[in-house]
Fold this protein.
Amino acid sequence: MPDARNPWWRDAVVYQVYPRSFQDSDGDGEGDLAGVARRLDHVASLGVDAVWLSPIYPSPMADGGYDVSDYEDVDPRFGTLADFDAFLARAHARGMRVLMDVVPCHTSIEHRWFREHPDRYVWSDRDGPQNNWIGTFGGPAWSKDPRSGRWYLHSFYPEQPDLDWRNPEVRQAMPRALGFWVDRGVDGFRVDAIDRLMKDPELRDDPPATGPPALPLHPEHATLEHVHSRNAPDVGVALAALRAGAGDGTLLVGEVYLPSAGLGPYLEHLDVAFAFELFHSQWNVAAVRAAIEAALDPAGPAGRVAWVLSNHDFPRLPDRVGHGNERAAALLALTLPGTVFVYQGDEIGMADGPGGDPPRDRWGRDAFRHPMRWDDAEPHGGFTTGDPWLPSTPAEGGAVATQEANPASLLHLYRDLIALRRSFAPGFELLDAPEGVLAFRRGEHVVVLNLGPGEAPAPPAKEVVRHTHGATGKAPDRLGRGEGFVSKG
Ligand code: NOJ
């Protein structure tokens, strides 16, 4: 019987697979579900609890699959529904749960609803944009539909028209899609761009921004204060419908792109929401402490956040926290209390690649989506026998096969930390520590890491059970840049 007070996801580690870049099984240069299934032993060997698949639905791929043209099927480039079922069964057989990505804010412009049910979308009542809203990737959030001559809203690319969640038909149709996957055995969903779901019913102009945005945005998008174009106070109506479609036992993780203090209305219906303040935090003690405190605030989300330091939308970990700090980043994410997400390739320290030529993503995110490196001795790192859709770029510490054979590798650190977190007793407390050093207590364990630019004194600690770089046993007096440890007491 599932225990509602202690659900499986409470301290779970979820591994994000970006299917197009994980493993190609048929030589067409793009990853697919049979490839993911083949590599599940690697994922399971990390000790993770679940796999989150970025979208695999039929899609014209204007936004890497976040432009869905059918919510109840698999894109042929990724395989078939039978491949999905086989993948799901393999994951379950290895004790891992599976999360899908659901994209409820918009469809692809090629979804049949756009022609057959135009009322399910948001239209301007004039011959031009209804207001001054700007799309997330820049440019006006309104485009003219060449067929009908009317203007429609798109919070993202023009190929992604926004659904009108004030229309009860939408609140019935989309949740059915969640049920479709739950019936197949899916355990949860990462819910895309959920703060965009509901807008001002009168579609009023956004006022000009009065300061820098709370979280990083496209510079043009950041010129407005998004008080009307997102995060409507009655978002709960839509979220309740999504929850009804998913059912009570299904994990719903919100991609709510707001500071932690704004997550309350979302957490009334979702289980957890990503902690984007920590994701985007500067790599220093004051900023990281503040982000953690905001996410654990009893008057705010009270710890109902999912930690995440990396995904397919932003520069890869070494490029954001600084090369040499990726072990400390792993130590931080994997020892905080609560659900944590790991993006494929983080466990081998993959950094940004050169991107596609010509670019595949117009907003420049190719660099964060290069194929997984399995074996440096194989063509394209073992990702494909064909021509990879994005070039395969080596990881600094070597591919999975190299790191597997080296107990001092980053890969082994991930595995050990994931195992170690299982032994943490409840409880979390930030501790005082020397300048540049972050320290916190997890039950009987203490986590210490140097976030500063150089060497720092280590606070006194008892037995070190895992060090990011060095030996266990006696606690060190000093920590080099990017070093840290977990001690017992
Ligand atoms: C967030 C997704 O992670 C991103 O890749 C996508 O472009 C937008 N949502 C729009 O769906």
Q: What stands out?
A: The pocket of 1-deoxynojirimycin is lined by residues 63-64, 66, 103, 156, 192-193, 255, 312-313 (CB under 6 Å). Residues 24 and 109 are 28 Å apart (CA to CA).
